[in-house]
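Input record (one chain):
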Amino acid sequence: MPPALPEPPARRPLWAALASVLLVSQLVGCAAVAPADPAPSATGAAVAGTAWARADGLATPTPVDDALLAQWWRQFDDPTLGQMVADALAAHPDLRSAQAALAQARAARALAEAARWPALGLGASSSRSATDTAGVNTHRLAFSASWEPDLNGNLSAAVAAARADEDAAQADVASTRIALAAEVALAYVQWRGALAREQLTRASLAALEDTLQLTEWRTRAGLASAHDLEQALLATEQTRASLPALATEIAQYEHQVAVLRGLAPAQGRPTRDGADNTRPTVPQAPAALRSLAVGVPADLLRRRPDLRAAEARVQAAWAREVQSRRAAWPGLSLTGSLGWQAATLGALGGPGAAIASLAAGVDWTVFDAGARDAQVAGRSAALAQSRAAYEAGVLAALQDVEDSLAALRGSRDRADALARAEQAAAAALLAQRIRHQAGVVDTATWLNAQRDELAARLALQSTRTEISLQLIRLFKALGGGWPAPPTVDDTADDTPHDADDTTAPAADRPTA
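The corresponding structure, as predicted from the sequence alone:
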């Protein structure tokens, strides 16, 4: 009886190869960790526990209501302003550009994460070769796999950098929203202020024209001199000459508002229905001024998205420095294939048709003439630059708030004084009118009283406009215009990130 044939030897190496690949993938996958976070900025840590220097007597250190600050323009109780801000946040090209940059960053992050996974392929081929006497058919069906295990942590560092870039792009979108909302509100308030000054000037011009006509009659009757008539004409025409400049200012603000809303200047100009035809007013937020809460400087590190973007760029620069350093460590690559090959299609599933291959390679650059060191030095310099940019951003943010508080305080004090000056000018105008009608004072004195009253009213109107403008700038400086995320202590991060690199060598750790 002939001996039994052994089992085809191709099957045992095939399953052994697949088991080896899985075992190596598990071991190497456990070794890949993300780089540790860089040390916190000394400038950012220095603001903790400090208070605003210019808030005394004007604002309280009470924490800001994030929900209220996210839509601060509602505090002005102006539906037109709210609609314009909504239009800008929906259609402005700058915001669409920032959103496209965010989409690009998300795609880059997904690409970096995909690089850590094996790549699988499926291929099939059919060929025929022939000679003068015979022909040979070859049919092939194969599955292939390739993988570069993150043995040195290079890919994990790349993923950490891509995630930080995505966080920075997300914060840039929020920064764009803040800037757009503030720019729309500033342009709208300035437009309303210019309308109010134009209305005051026209009212004063009408009074001066009445005075001019009265002076003409008095001159014809011999009750006034030609000099009085010339002075009345001078005051009237000087006031009339200021109207074209105001019209130009109004038109420019209308164009600015239209463009901020994503429209052509001729299409998106605001209407004047919201202004009082008798005495136009500027949108104000008296409730916000009465209970102005600004929190503490440390709140800016959480709320202002430009600072969060700068912080994320520090994280990205640190991860790329780690990536450059770890790229010099040995790397491992695995490739394998599993398939079937036979002369006929029916024989692909038969014995002896299975073929498999597995290959592993190690890549380690032992000499590059200092290229790797130069790359690491460049990334270290980029990290230092990003840290300096973050510290400069923190200082600039602190200055923005302090400047806005100081300007708001000054505008409110000036408005109080100008309100009293306007009352005095109105009283003086009334007294001079009675005296002029009685012939006690000359026309020049009466005209000076009219000019003083107009100047006082214009100055008070401009200062009231400035109060609203400074309040808007303060809201912007505090990071208003987007829903600030909660603090890290109040929420857990549900995003799957790699563990901290607690086992990294000393040379791979950040320094303060």
